[in-house]
Write a structure and sequence with these properties.
Length: 171
């Protein structure tokens, strides 16, 4: 007998004890992707500036923050934030144990991680979503809550375009 909680999507937040370097972030995201069952995923953290924002070196390029490409699965995207927390929506509860094991494999022993269950993504469109995307069709609702309304459109990376397809022609 299948319980209703086994088939419902589960939202989880992974919160490492410190910000992750790009190499560690890629390793963690790859392990999470290998675990499977991901419907939606977002990464949060402070921005990685491309130039020195203030002080005597203002405007000088920061070499270590250039070309931070992260490859997850078959897709690559530019990392624009220090990874501070990851929010995911999983297909069901059966992927939670694999998620915990993936975090343990990917992170060094000196970095602890908290995994919290809760409600982290919006389910219905807000005025900001309507202004950003236009009317959102029922099949494209997974895009809701995936981007900051004040952010530019290039801040959203889709790892799979079979689940969400919001095009300029659809607006």
């Amino acid at each position: 007998m299948v319980a209703e909680s086994d088939t419902q999507p589960v939202q989880v937040e992974i919160f490492p004890s410190r910000f992750l370097m790009p190499e560690t972030a890629q390793k963690l995201l790859t392990e999470i992707h290998k675990n499977g069952g991901i419907l939606r995923i977002t990464i949060h953290g402070p921005s990685l500036p491309r130039t020195v924002p203030y002080g005597p070196g203002k405007g000088t390029p920061i070499e270590e923050n250039r070309d931070l490409l992260v490859e997850v699965g078959d897709e690559a995207f530019e990392l624009k934030v220090k990874l501070g927390r990851i929010r995911l929506e999983l297909e069901s509860e059966k992927y939670l144990e694999g998620l915990k094991a993936a975090c343990e494999r990917a992170l060094p022993p000196n970095i602890s991680v908290q995994i919290k269950r809760g409600r982290f993504f919006r389910e219905s469109p807000t005025v900001s979503d309507y202004a950003k995307y236009g009317p959102v069709k029922e099949k494209d609702r997974k895009i809701l809550g995936m981007i900051d309304p004040k952010a530019k459109k290039d801040r959203l990376s889709m790892l799979s375009d079979k689940n969400a397809a919001i095009d300029k022609e659809e607006r």
